[in-house]
Amino acid sequence: MRRRPGIAGLQNAAAARDQYRLIGENVAKVRTDLMNQQLATFRSQLEEFARKHKNDIRKNPTFRSQFHEMCAKVGVDPLASNKGFWAELLGIGDFYYELGVQIVDICLVTRTHNGGLINLQELCSLLCQRRKTARESVSEDDCLRAINKLKVLGSGFEVISVGKKKLVRSVPTELNKDHNEILELAQAHGYVLVEEVEKRFSWSSGRAIDALETLLEEGLAMIDDGHRDGKRRYWFPCVSSISSATGSEGLKI
Amino acid sequence: MQRLGDFRLPHFFNYPPYFTLQPVRETREKQVQLWKELILDYCRSQKIFIIGLEEEFPLFSNPVIERSLNHEARGVFLSALVSEGRAEWMDKSHKKCLILWLRIQDWADHIIKFVKDNGLEDSVVTVEDIRSGFESRGTELAGIDRGVLMRALRLLEQKGKAAIFKGSSSDDEGVKFSV
């Protein structure tokens, strides 16, 4: 269209712009409606699914974790509110709060022994022992979720990964990279030797001893001078639970 | 779980660092606490009254993990019991330790109960009978250390609940209870 000068031309152009905007808005609205509709459908499907498999979700830890994964993918958090539909339907809000309380309890009881750092596996098995009477079994995934909820309290509960293992920290200790590496090394036998640390990471002896001393001070390590080779061992209760530490270490090194 | 006879050993007994005195205060406190409980529980279950610091004692070493407590550690754990009134050094050089898994007062209470259960009020019993007689069989009093028993009896005497009679030898000392 040839552009014409004058008032009429300007008015035409403005009217055209309005038209375009209107159409654009309409399209957007239709799309949003469609999306909303789809989401509503999906939500009702998910609810239907949850209702149908309520018992499985409650009782079967694997199923529960898969359900959580599915919810996470579509941005639904069944734990977000205890009052919400999900909690009412499944009662899983309470379930995780209960777990959370028990986890705090276990961490406190074992703190004197492990310095506030506990192996997730051990925590989970202690949790299962404690809940023997409860019918539902608990998986590591459930523990992680419950701990995640505890973060809200700001009490410094945190899950850290050291090597292949996950450790749950219940005291606000700052562990640096050196400490983490030592903990990882200790997973092999439950203890480390100074020379072993130096050799493995090519550290100066000062660096190794310094890191080990800090771990001692924090109550995360214990010394053992009783081996017949006379070398001091640094044991880490958080990587080897006492119950599983037996005398087989005498054969190694 | 490892056992000593019919005694169930706690898990920490298999964890090597518990056999080395820990340098960090909090860890050491926990360690001492665990050992104190273990020593008292073990002595009670086995009716052991005297521990010789330089003698073999089943708790002082764990062959399974090849660890044993050194002299200093033994001294620290027993001293901790002494400071709580749950043990007493029997000599100045601290080589022998009397373990009181029951305090003298508690022993006295047990004796009173024994007297009442067996209707021995106002009758004379020999000290030996209390330790090894038919009536005491299966009770806490069976096999009680003579020294501990005498102290409990003397405590009762002070309270006017018992009168001790000297016999011709220490074997035939007698007690009359007036509960």
Automatic annotation (TrEMBL), chain A:
Q: Which GO terms describe its biological process?
A: protein transport to vacuole involved in ubiquitin-dependent protein catabolic process via the multivesicular body sorting pathway
The family database entries (InterPro entries) matched by this protein are listed as: ESCRT-2_cplx_Snf8, Snf8/Vps36, WH-like_DNA-bd_sf, WH_DNA-bd_sf
Q: Might you report a single GO cellular component term?
A: ESCRT II complex
- Top-rank taxon of the source lineage equals Eukaryota
What keywords appear on the UniProt entry? Protein transport, Transport
Q: Name one Pfam family in it.
A: EAP30
The text of the family note is: Belongs to the SNF8 family.
Q: What does this protein do?
A: Component of the endosomal sorting complex required for transport II (ESCRT-II), which is required for multivesicular body (MVB) formation and sorting of endosomal cargo proteins into MVBs.
Q: How does it assemble?
A: Component of the endosomal sorting complex required for transport II (ESCRT-II).
Q: What name goes with this protein?
A: Vacuolar protein sorting-associated protein
UniProtKB/TrEMBL annotation, chain B:
Top-level lineage group:
Eukaryota
Checking Pfam families in the record gives: ESCRT-II
Q: Which InterPro entries match?
A: ESCRT-II_cplx_Vps25-sub, ESCRT-II_cplx_Vps25-sub_N, WH-like_DNA-bd_sf, WH_DNA-bd_sf
Q: Name one GO biological process term.
A: protein transport to vacuole involved in ubiquitin-dependent protein catabolic process via the multivesicular body sorting pathway
GO MF annotations for this entry?
protein homodimerization activity; structural molecule activity
Any GO CC annotation of this UniProt entry? ESCRT II complex
Q: Which UniProt keywords apply?
A: Protein transport, Transport
Record PANTHER family: VACUOLAR PROTEIN SORTING-ASSOCIATED PROTEIN VPS25 (PTHR13149), VACUOLAR PROTEIN-SORTING-ASSOCIATED PROTEIN 25 (PTHR13149:SF0)
The family annotation for this protein states: Belongs to the VPS25 family.
Question: What is the designated name of this protein?
Answer: ESCRT-II complex subunit VPS25
Organism name: Asparagus officinalis (Garden asparagus)
Q: What is the lineage of its organism?
A: Eukaryota, Viridiplantae, Streptophyta, Embryophyta, Tracheophyta
